[in-house]
Amino acid sequence: AKAAGKNQVAVFDYTLRAARLHHAEIAAGLRQALAAEELTLAYQPVVNLTTGAVYAVEALLRWTPSGGRRVPPDVFIPVAEDTGLIVEIGRWALEQACAQAKQWHRRYGIAVTVNVSGRQLRERSFRDTVLEILTRHALPRNALTLEVTESMLLATSPAETQRIVAVLADLRAHGVRIALDDFGTGYSSLAYLRTLPVDILKIDRSFTTPLTGADHRQARAFTKAIVELAAGLDLATVVEGVESREQAGILQQMGCPLAQGYLFSPPISPAEVDDLLQVSPWQ
Ligand code: C2E
Ligand code: CA
Ligand code: CA
Ligand code: CA
Hints:
With about 280 residues, the chain is of the alpha/beta class.
């Protein structure tokens, strides 16, 4: 048992060291990714479940180091957050999304949604940066939705949380919409929702898969309750990770207005968004 224990420690150390190396390598690569134009945005449609029309597109970062393989956001975003690089990268993403979304909004009335990290949100200049970018691109403020998570609102001191909530409320008063991302994965009590400056709830994918699973009765009751509560609070709901027609049908019956997932479209390039908006395949 002692030998086995020793082995476990050795293995653990090794993995930890590998993880650190990996982290340093990613950080070094990321530091030059912006200048080397290795970052792009893909866009995933959010659709109206009843009409099939595209309601918005979510901007999602893509990083392909030159001469290398694409690194998934779940791997590089945490490193960008640790190193603080997310502030610059996030500003670039906001800028790029507003520039690209301008045509889509003018022609089709479609909003663009941009993910914001906690680190970005805590920057003192965040509010001014957002409003400045919107003004410079002459994009109506309601054409932008910012996606934040409950954990980033809570993972700080109460005073700092209050300040961030005030910044979001201020942006919202200016017309920018706020979406609460990955809803249901945090610790929030539903009552807490009333105090947050939020327009849209994005129900996490972990609620979608069980809708057609073994415990589907319970899963459906749960999702239905969230959708109804949100409607009662005048919030829209987007269900994430919809992969089958069966799931889409169940959600539509529950009165869920909006959905996103591979059933409708994976994240696609801006040119593909142009094509898709022209043909509107779900009408
Ligand atoms: P998220 O904001 O929850 O984005 C949804 C993720 O689910 C995306 O992964 C999307 O490609 C994936 N997805 C969409 N539909 C389906 C489906 O039907 N099935 C499955 N299995 N997955 C689906 P992606 O693009 O790899 O992004 C992962 C995460 O990285 C995002 O999760 C977000 O937290 C973060 N991220 C991406 N772009 C940005 C960004 O610009 N800024 C910040 N701060 N975070 C970002
Ligand atoms: Ca998101
Ligand atoms: Ca999400
Ligand atoms: Ca997520």
